[in-house]
Amino acid sequence: MKIELELQLLEDTDMSADDFTALYLVFKGGFDLLQRLNLHPDWEKLQQEGYIKLGETIEEHVARQDFIDLFTNNFDSMFAELIGTYPMKVNTTTGIRILHAKDPDVKANEKCKNKYKKIVKTNKHIHKAIMKALDTQLTLERHNLSYLQNLETWLNNHTWEKYQDIDINDINNSESKRITRKL
To answer: Which is deepest, 126, 139, 143, 154, by most CB within 10 Å?
Structure first.
């Protein structure tokens, strides 16, 4: 059995590698492997957070939907959310520039959809991280959207990665302390 650990997922959920591995093995029914590995999951914490329902024995533990949703979801709804959030058009000095088609299922969005599927797969936490970064970008550039990239370019360049570690509150506080000159 192959188990991939997304470090960002562990950080976002405040879950240890042992917690995730044990939950995944419960979800996949790998109880014999779970007993052979030297894992020390915090079962009580995982139950309190809604990731598992504990049974009398390990074989009776059941992974809950909250855990399953961390890495499996409906891709079409995730892509529709991206299309709905990313600006469809922007005003420029020469007119209007179209960044993507409105309907997520049209041929014009097919390349974007395929690219996003390669990036996100069915990982909802990756989608959430991208949407959070997009929200940060749109907040920071709200007065200068005319330079926003076409959606396909934005996906190809992984532009959201530039905005992932930015805290909006820090930016807003630094803008109020900005020193400017009057000419």
So the answer is: 154
Burial code (b: 16+ CB inside 10 Å, e: under 16) for 47-83 equals eebebbeeeeeeeebebbeebeebbebebeebbebbb
Dmax over CA atoms of the chain, in Å, equals 75
Let me know: does 167 contact 113? Beta carbons within 8 Å.
Answer: no
The gap from C-alpha 157 to its chain's centroid, in whole angstroms, comes to 17
pLDDT (tens digit per residue) in 148-162: 999 999 999 999 999
Adjacent-strand bridge partners of 142: none
Q: Could you identify the residue written with the tokens 């000159």?
A: 181
Q: Which long-range contacts (CB under 8 A, 24 or more apart) does 59-66 make?
A: 59/31, 61/26, 62/26, 63/23, 63/26, 63/27
pTM score of the predicted model: 0.64
In angstroms, the CA 16 to CA 14 distance is: 7
Instruction: Dump strand ranges (E) for the chain.
Output: 52-53, 62-63, 89-92, 95-98
In the chain, which stretches have pLDDT less than 70?
Answer: 71-73, 170-183
Angstrom distance (rounded) from CA 181 to CA 183: 6
